[in-house]
Automatic annotation (TrEMBL):
One of its GO terms (cellular component) is plasma membrane. Its main location: membrane. This is Sodium/potassium/calcium exchanger 3. Gene3D superfamilies: NCX, central ion-binding region. The lineage of its organism: Eukaryota, Metazoa, Ecdysozoa, Arthropoda, Hexapoda. Belongs to the Ca(2+):cation antiporter (CaCA) (TC 2.A.19) family. SLC24A subfamily. Residues 71-106 are annotated as: Disordered. It comes from the Eukaryota. Residues 202-354 form the Sodium/calcium exchanger membrane region domain. GO terms for molecular function: calcium channel activity; calcium, potassium:sodium antiporter activity; symporter activity. It comes from Frankliniella occidentalis.
Length: 371
């Protein structure tokens, strides 16, 4: 789906994978005894505050991390032979040979240094060729193309509420089905892109949150009813249909920013949202339920009904490690091969987690009670 290979910066990916890995590991420790105590839920919330603090001081931490990696790369380059060093200097005016592994590793580990070299060569006196005019800035794994290169939005992309679109019967069916939804959104969510609604962006944000929360509740309720009717465990419905449905907005936003060249932003959105889901979206409700709404007096904990969630969390942690190793082997590039690898890992995780929840390997869920 991407029109080009998008380079990724190693720091945001490493930071988010490390934070998510610590979060999943702590979740495994919490649900091991099939109950969540109030202080364990509070710890999840406090960890999210720590995560926000790390994001706030990200620039300082990033400079220290890049300095350590840069010194390692410098030592590795200094150990190379003088001939290789001469080839690196000559690569300013000619493409580097395929055998120059040290320079490629340095640019992969420190894209900022590669950016400075590229800009310096393009901005040198007398450089008026296409390379000097078409330099694209690569900052934090994103490609900032020129404004002229970006295609203007087509008028047909706008949703026409009061005129049936052309283009085939399928497009008309989709328009009819989604027409009530767009109509309700039109009257409840101000379009702050229009000049007259520009100052109403806080109301737009608030109404989006309200609609997302309301629709998420309805979807979770429907999934629970369908699973109970078909005698499918709630955990299976959660890791399949519910997870896919609630992740559609994240997937769409990640695809949009990745097509614009901001690959690191898309990856951070996908991984960081899961960290938010575990630490705050699970920790805060668990803390409120265990502290203020206990099932019995003095029982300040929340019961977890599935023993298979622990194995699913372990599988998720293994998948995360495999994902980072795959990105590292692909030199932190987002391309078709990386997409195929991610899809394969997701299918394997989904099959494994579903089989565990369905008691295929061992019993983790009690049979559904008869009516």
């Amino acid at each position: 789906m991407l029109p080009q290979v998008v380079p990724l910066d190693w720091w945001p990916l490493t930071r988010d994978c490390l934070a998510y890995g610590v979060t999943v590991a702590f979740l495994i420790c919490i649900i091991h005894d099939e109950r969540v105590e109030w202080y364990e839920a509070l710890t999840l919330v406090l960890l999210y505050i720590v995560y926000i603090a790390v994001m706030y001081w990200d620039k300082s931490i990033q400079s220290c991390a890049r300095g350590g990696v840069g010194s390692t790369a410098s030592r590795r380059q200094s150990e190379s032979s003088p001939t290789e060093a001469g080839e690196v200097l000559l690569s300013v005016s000619s493409p580097p040979p395929p055998s120059d592994v040290a320079e490629e590793e340095k640019q992969a580990l420190n894209p900022a240094a590669a950016l400075q070299t590229t800009v310096a060569v393009a901005g040198a006196p007398g450089s008026t060729g296409p390379a000097a005019m078409g330099v694209s800035e690569q900052i934090n794994g994103s490609i900032k193309a020129s404004e002229e290169a970006r295609p203007a939005p087509e008028e047909g992309e706008c949703i026409q509420l009061f005129s049936c679109p052309d283009g085939g019967w399928w497009r008309r069916v989709v328009w009819v089905v989604t027409w009530p939804i767009h109509l309700v959104f039109l009257f409840t969510i101000p379009d702050c892109e229009k000049p007259k609604f520009k100052r109403l962006f806080p109301l737009t944000f608030f109404m989006c949150i309200v609609w997302i929360g309301s629709l998420s509740y309805v979807v979770a309720w429907l999934i629970t009813i369908i699973g109970d009717t078909l005698k499918i465990p709630d955990s299976v419905m959660g890791i399949t249909f519910l997870a896919a449905g609630t992740s559609v907005p994240e997937a769409v936003s990640s695809v949009i920013v990745a097509k614009q060249g901001h690959g690191s932003m898309g990856i951070s959105n996908s991984i960081g949202s899961n960290t938010f889901d575990i630490l705050l979206c699970l920790g805060l409700p668990w803390f409120i339920k265990a502290s203020f709404l206990p099932t019995a007096k003095g029982h300040h904990y929340v019961n977890i009904n599935s023993r298979g969630l622990e194995y699913s969390a372990i599988s998720l942690l293994s998948t995360l490690l495999l994902l980072y190793v795959t990105f590292y082997a692909n030199k932190f590039k987002l391309d078709r091969k990386m997409g195929q690898a991610c899809l394969a890992m997701y299918v394997v995780f989904l099959i494994l987690a579903t089989l565990i929840e369905l008691n295929v390997f061992f019993v983790v869920n009690l049979p559904t009670c008869g009516r």
